[in-house]
Amino acid sequence: MNRKNIYVTEATLPKFEEYISEIESIWETRWLTNMGNKHQELESNLKDYLNTPHIQLFTNGHMSIELSLKLLQTGGEVITTPFTFVSTIHAIINAGLKPVFCDVNEKDYTIDVTKIKKCITPNTVAILPVHVYGNICDVEKIQKVADKHSLKVIYDAAHAFGVRYKNKGIAEYGDISCFSFHATKVFNTIEGGCACFSNTAYNEILSNYKNFGITGPETVVAIGTNAKMNEFSAAMGLCNLKNICDNIEIRKKLVERYRKNLERVPGINYIDNQKDVVHNYSYFPIFIDESKCYYSRDELYEELIHNRVYSRKYFYPLITDLECYRNQYSSDETPVAKLASSRVLVLPLYPTLAIEDVDFICEIIKKEKENTDE
Ligand SMILES: *Cc1c(COP(=O)(O)O)cnc(C)c1O
């Protein structure tokens, strides 16, 4: 059998001609970066799509989180979860703050709201929950806790582009929502990201931070950095945004197929759609309960590779078990996250994935069960 490799994701691209025609005007203006026409147009289109009053574009999602935290200008502690990409935690530390790890819930692996209170100390300044896999956190309860203790809420919304809750854009919840436009995400600008917020004052601060704090030819008002999105990235965003609805629709069909195929497979669990949420179907994680299906997550991972299917263990190891953090933190304090991390496999999902490939992958998962049953 001569199948091609199937990776966990494949970057979404517009038609070649579409991108070429979008970048043509750059040869007339020779304006390659520093908030040019493409940058402005993308900001405006994203404001509409994400339903946000204010937006700042960045070189990547990581800088949107780091600079949003730097904006707090406080020092102190930030409550977050270890079941995320390292970027979330690195950003907290690079902004001069200290991460405090709260466990996740067993239903969708977002922050367990009932455990936030225990993590609050006189030094807490913010909560940084993650809409992990595009499933949303309990935004209403989080806001209640935050209001009661005067904390800011900054969402890592890297997985949640285009997600809607109760007829509002997900960026309308919390103080700031940070999105990633990395090549592997639902919406990409090659590399890129943005912060969305309603506080008008944040606009000036964040736009200064991303351009060295420069406000005029002879004035530098803040110790900023360089985190500007360039025009070629913004042009990619303009093209990809035109196709976003179609792409999410295809993702939805693929996820529905996965769920149908794996519905009654013992020991294989997945997360269902959430109530009142319009999803973006950014990832399809499954959680393998070894005691019910007689093979481990790692065995299935290897068997998939044997069939040239490259799934990923997002997020394993847990942040608190990584070399750079394990001396200061223990994963035993967040047992739900620890268990999830030992069971998770993210299966391939992207708009150019064929429905037959989904069936092929699910057959491997089911076959693995039969083999080990004997
Ligand atoms: C991708 C990602 C980021 C970082 O985004 P980049 O654009 O790659 O810098 C942050 N948090 C999470 C959860 C992510 O998946």
The gist of it:
The chain has 14 helices and 17 strands.
Give an overview in words.
With 374 residues, this protein is of the alpha/beta class. The protein has 14 helices and 17 strands. Helix 5 links the parallel strand 3 and strand 4 (98-101). Helix 1 packs across helix 9 and helix 3 packs parallel to helix 9 (231-242). The model has no long low-confidence stretch (mean pLDDT 96). The structure holds pyridoxal-5'-phosphate. Pyridoxal-5'-phosphate binds next to helix 4 and helix 5.
Shape: globular
% residues in beta strands: 15-25%
Strands ordered across the widest β-sheet: 2-10-9-6-5-3-4
Average pLDDT confidence is: 96
In which range does the helix fraction lie?
25-40%
Radius of gyration: 21 Å
Bound molecules: pyridoxal-5'-phosphate
Q: From the helix content, strand content and strand pairing, which structural class follows? A: alpha/beta
Count all strands and give the number: 17
Largest sheet descriptor: 7 strands, mixed
Number of helices, counting only DSSP H or I runs of 4 residues or more: 14
Query: What low-confidence regions span 5 or more consecutive residues with pLDDT below 50?
Result: none
